[in-house]
């Protein structure tokens, strides 16, 4: 049916924070300047997701072979890492807030693991909906596809377990970074020479995205490497809870941006190296090098988003990106049907760039309106 570029897992506001959901950021009036950039980034990920899904679904003929489609595809590589990274950041922010209020580690773990299980259940419900709407032409095996919601739910549960097992902020930061690196390093062999072929396909698919095709599929979202982005985000979220961030938030975010630049440089240098440590090397889909580059780019984007929201026009009056960030799970769920599903706005694989761009504009405006209505309903 479709290749989901990514989806966030929570909503905006104090209610979500009080429930212990690690998928949103409390953006009350006292923290808007510091934290609005998180929702802004989540909204940007929504827009990048809309554009890739729209062009991938609707462009046809020669429009799929030129530089325009290549650029759209490149933009489509960012939403999933962004959403997972931001889920990790929000997880760190909220769990540290709960610790500061004296909540026991066991209680925090139960709440976060339950939230992850809730997201995983939503992922299964989403797959069931897609199967029902695509009755007669969607294979039953699509019910067991590992989509981005599945891996977000699993990531939250795994982070909940880790935060229970590892006590102390500094230790949790180190453990998060170590886990992210281990996941990235294990991905190439688990996609090739170390594949757990003894598992049934639907279970192996959670390891490497093999599904029913016999080889890992790049459009799926298995634990390796995708949960690594969530753990990397968790480390950043824990850094953002420190006293240094409260005293010098711009300096800390700038430092994280500098770390991002170093990660990008390291990834490019390692990719250019004449030697390889893996029997099979796939830069775009399973390499630790591309993982480092994408984490670095997310950190650089976070720096830009912080600057835009603090000193630019990111928070002037109404921000469409922040608004989409509030309800990103909803707009993800709904837009799929108007792009890939039975209610697609345009014929599949049959449109030119201008027509598909008009369809993308309609999707964006429709989802923005839906987001505004949903936010207004929650307030009333």
Helix content: 55-70%
Enumerate how many helices there are, as a single number: 15
How far apart are the termini?
A: 37 Å
The beta-strand count equals 0
Rg (C-alpha, Å): 20 Å
Structural class: mainly alpha
Beta-strand residue fraction: under 5%
Low-confidence stretches: 1-34
Biggest sheet architecture: none
* Assembly context of the chains: single chain
Q: What does the overall shape look like?
A: globular
What value does the average pLDDT take?
90
The number of domains: 1
Order of helices and strands: HHHHHHHHHHHHHHH
What does this structure look like?
The chain has one domain. It has 15 helices and no strands. The model is unreliable at 1-34 (pLDDT under 50). The longest helix is centred in the first third of the chain and has 29 residues, at 105-133. Helix 2 packs across helix 13, helix 7 runs antiparallel to helix 9 (223-239) and helix 14 (328-339) runs antiparallel to helix 15. The protein has helices spanning 14-18, 32-58, 67-75, 79-100, 105-133, 148-165, 169-190, 201-208, 223-239, 243-247, 249-272, 288-311, 320-326, 328-339, 353-379. The chain has 380 residues and is mainly alpha-helical. It starts with 13 loop residues before the first helix and ends with a helix.
SSE map:
Blueprint: H1 14-18, H2 32-58, H3 67-75, H4 79-100, H5 105-133, H6 148-165, H7 169-190, H8 201-208, H9 223-239, H10 243-247, H11 249-272, H12 288-311, H13 320-326, H14 328-339, H15 353-379
């Amino acid at each position: 049916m479709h290749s989901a570029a990514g989806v966030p897992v929570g909503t905006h506001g104090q209610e979500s924070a009080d429930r212990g959901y690690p998928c949103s950021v409390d953006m009350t009036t006292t923290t808007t300047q510091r934290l609005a950039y998180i929702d802004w980034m989540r909204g940007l990920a929504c827009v990048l997701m809309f554009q890739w899904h729209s062009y991938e679904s609707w462009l046809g003929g020669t429009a799929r072979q030129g530089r325009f489609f290549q650029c759209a595809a490149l933009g489509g590589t960012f939403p999933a890492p962004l959403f997972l990274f931001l889920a990790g950041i929000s997880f760190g922010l909220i769990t540290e807030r709960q610790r500061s209020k004296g909540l026991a580690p066991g209680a925090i773990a139960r709440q976060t693991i339950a939230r992850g299980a809730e997201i995983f259940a939503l992922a299964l419900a989403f797959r069931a909906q897609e199967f029902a709407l695509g009755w007669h032409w969607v294979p039953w095996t699509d019910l067991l596809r590992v989509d981005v919601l599945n891996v977000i739910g699993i990531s939250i549960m795994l982070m909940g377990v880790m935060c229970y097992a590892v006590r102390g902020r500094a230790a949790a930061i180190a453990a998060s970074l170590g886990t992210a690196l281990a996941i990235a390093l294990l991905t190439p062999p688990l996609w090739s020479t170390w594949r757990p072929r003894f598992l049934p396909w639907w279970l192996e698919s959670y390891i490497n995205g093999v599904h029913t095709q016999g080889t890992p599929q790049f459009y799926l979202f298995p634990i390796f490497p995708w949960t690594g982005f969530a753990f990397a985000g968790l480390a950043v979220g824990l850094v953002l809870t420190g006293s240094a961030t409260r005293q010098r938030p711009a300096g800390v975010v700038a430092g994280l941006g500098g770390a991002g630049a170093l990660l990008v440089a390291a990834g490019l240098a390692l990719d250019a190296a004449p030697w390889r440590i893996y029997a099979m090397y796939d830069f775009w889909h399973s390499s630790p090098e591309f993982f480092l580059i994408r984490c670095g780019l997310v950190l650089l984007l976070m720096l830009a988003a912080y600057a835009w929201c603090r000193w630019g026009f990111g928070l002037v009056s109404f921000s469409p990106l922040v608004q989409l960030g509030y309800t990103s799970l909803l707009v993800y769920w709904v837009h799929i049907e108007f792009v890939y599903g039975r209610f697609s706005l345009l014929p599949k694989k049959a449109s030119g760039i201008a027509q598909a761009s008009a369809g993308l504009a309609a999707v964006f405006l429709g989802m923005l309106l839906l987001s505004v209505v949903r936010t207004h309903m929650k307030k009333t």
